[in-house]
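Review this fold:
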Amino acid sequence: MKNDYIVCVCGDASRAAYLIKGEKNVLFDAGMAYSADKMIENIKRELGDRPLDAVLLSHSHYDHISGVPFLRKEWPDLVVYGSAYAKKILEKPSAKKTMRELSDAAAQGAGLTKAPDYRDEDLVVDKVVKEGDILDFGDHKITVFETPGHTKCSLSYMVDHDVIFASETVGVTTSEVYMPCYLVGYQMSLDAVEKLRHAGAKRIFITHVGILTPEDAGTALLPGLKKEEFSADRVWDYLEAGLKRTKDEIVEIIRKYPTEEEQLKIMLATYHKGVKQEEQPDFAFLLNAAATLKVIRRECMNDADPER
């Protein structure tokens, strides 16, 4: 299968919108509101007069979905797929309010006053998908995997046993560091890695990074791995090791620093290195980090207090 049927069409540096070209054209995640115009321009350059038919949402965070209303405006027949829990979240006014606030913060990080406005009613899931569903897009068959851990609503998608679009549950390999992303479950995240490993895809897509290749071996994305050793299984090994290593590091941070304020400061310095504000504002990372601390206390330190 040709490698050029999957194209990054992101309108910003977050790399959260990838086009899967075929008889039907499908977008994996929809990027951010502030860069939606550029994303649409990139999609049109790839498709010409052909339409965008569908969007597959990995989860309900603002940096993956706030471009949806702008895509709908351009392609009114677009169908947005997501989990039942994502659909539920997107029906909550409080969630949509938070997404607007985070979208504005990202826009300000990019030097804008705020993100462009959109209609809340356009930010919805049209069709709910679940574990094991196979979506038929003509020459591409896409299998759905439920992979909670980053969020309760996280989904991963495999295209023709060729590429697996892994949800953020497996973590993010940045140019500086492996970033843990387990906001609702650490063990869930380990389980997700094993589930996706056994799916048997030839290539692995990491959210906010792209499809990992042998050229990434030995770089900051895959340190300690030689090019000749590169394989999908070795990438899963690296992601699993990252989950386990960061769990141990965060346990140590909690033990060493008595207040959550101190813990969050260390988390920011350790895991948010090299991330631009327009990609993820510090305060958005800190919201996630606070959730990660709670997960580690609950699952790994026998802290039964759910409100801590």
